[in-house]
Amino acid sequence: MARRMREGRAVAGGVLVAAAVAVLAGCGGAANDDPSAALRPTDPGTPATPALVVAFADAVPAEAFTPVATANLDATPSLYVVADFTSLPTGQSALVTIMSPEGTAYLQQPVALSDGAVGLASVSQLQSGAVRLVFALPVWGSTIESYRRTGLWQASVSLQGSDLAGTAQLDLH
């Protein structure tokens, strides 16, 4: 009797394992079917989800650059907010917001994400296909310098009409 119960459990366990394998392999496909097919998107025309990385730079950034987290007020004529968008549909706009160390909005500006430069913003396409927005923030000759507004500055960039947003912080001393 005990042996029959063990055999029944083994058969039931084997059935559960077989059912799980069938579900993962595409609901009962043949043994020779490609098992990775269950992991592929059903619609290959589905666009990739846009992504965004935001950083500060202390010089006009090249294709590759090193973000900065600190800067010296007396040695930094301008700061740059760099936002790299990947998988971005055409015709989009971003909103750049710079928050002062006091927690107030120092600057807020919409920017069209098309190649070119307008005012303090420039937009270009990188070799990787990403769209790069560079927003210049003058330090020398601005209220940042004249009032010695040192402390933690924050930049946020958001894709208008979506939830996509990124932030960066910089300690200006």
Overall description:
The protein is α+β, with helices and mostly antiparallel strands. It folds into 2 domains: 2-39, no CATH class; 51-172, Sandwich (Immunoglobulin-like), CATH 2.60.40.1930. Helix content is 16%, strand content 38%. The protein has helices at residues 2-24, 143-146, and strands at residues 51-57, 70-71, 78-86, 93-99, 105-112, 116-118, 121-125, 131-138, 151-159, 165-172. The strands form 2 sheets. The chain has a 5-stranded antiparallel sheet, with no helix packed on it. It has a 5-stranded mixed sheet with strand order 2-10-9-4-5, with no helix packed on it. The longest helix is centred in the first third of the chain and has 23 residues, at 2-24.
Q: What attributes characterize this protein structure?
A:
alpha+beta; disordered N terminus; 2 helices; Immunoglobulin-like; 173 residues; elongated
